[in-house]
Amino acid sequence: MSSHCYEVALFGEFFAQDLKSIVNRITLHSESSQQMLYRELVFEPIDAPQQRELGNEPVLLRARKEVTSSDSKWVLYSYLKPESARVHPEATVRPWSTLEIDGDAMAFASALGYIRRSQIYKRGYLFRKGSLVIQMFQQEQVDPKTSKPIPAHADTLWEVEVKTASPVRNTPETPLSVSVEAVMEIQILMKGLLDLRRQDS
């Protein structure tokens, strides 16, 4: 039995004109909903170019913080390669580790031997349903002078991530199939309005 913790997820995207009907349907079937604004940084190992030359894809480190709350902490997390579609054809299942840190995420990542590769903001809505979290957002680029978000263009695609709210272990008591079924329920719920699917990246 693997000792990994996993994230189980489905992904989708839609045009702004469908926002109201999609929000309405998800709100109807969720336990809670709120607005979200995340700042997200992506770091890669200092030796990432050498790893790629050797044909290895370096493991990226991500840092996320909820901007609207003054006391929110940085969460560091990292994914390994998703499990094969042969094993999990319905949903993306990938090993996932996560860590909450006090203080400066950039200094922490730097101490681990990582350098910053990119930075974005994600603005939208956050829904909770059972063990799942549903994020619906537009990506916003960062103003290099102020480090503040630049509002997304009106026709920027909305992205949706339906996923387990916290890492899950694959044990006899909590098999991954339970989480796969939970995200599949959302896929069925949104049918005809939003196409949710697995992705390998």
TrEMBL record:
Chain coiled-coil ranges: none
Pfam families (UniProt xref): Med18
InterPro entries on file: Mediator_Med18 (IPR019095)
GO cellular component: core mediator complex; mediator complex
Principal cellular location given in the protein's record: nucleus
Keyword line: Activator, Nucleus, Transcription, Transcription regulation
GO BP annotations listed: regulation of transcription by RNA polymerase II; termination of RNA polymerase II transcription
Domain of life of the organism encoding this protein: Eukaryota
Subcellular location: Nucleus
An MF annotation (GO) of this entry: transcription coregulator activity
Key word Transcription present: yes
Subunit structure: Component of the Mediator complex.
Function: Component of the Mediator complex, a coactivator involved in the regulated transcription of nearly all RNA polymerase II-dependent genes. Mediator functions as a bridge to convey information from gene-specific regulatory proteins to the basal RNA polymerase II transcription machinery. Mediator is recruited to promoters by direct interactions with regulatory proteins and serves as a scaffold for the assembly of a functional preinitiation complex with RNA polymerase II and the general transcription factors.
Family: Belongs to the Mediator complex subunit 18 family.
Name of the featured protein: Mediator of RNA polymerase II transcription subunit 18
Organism per entry: Thelephora terrestris
Gene encoding the protein: MED18
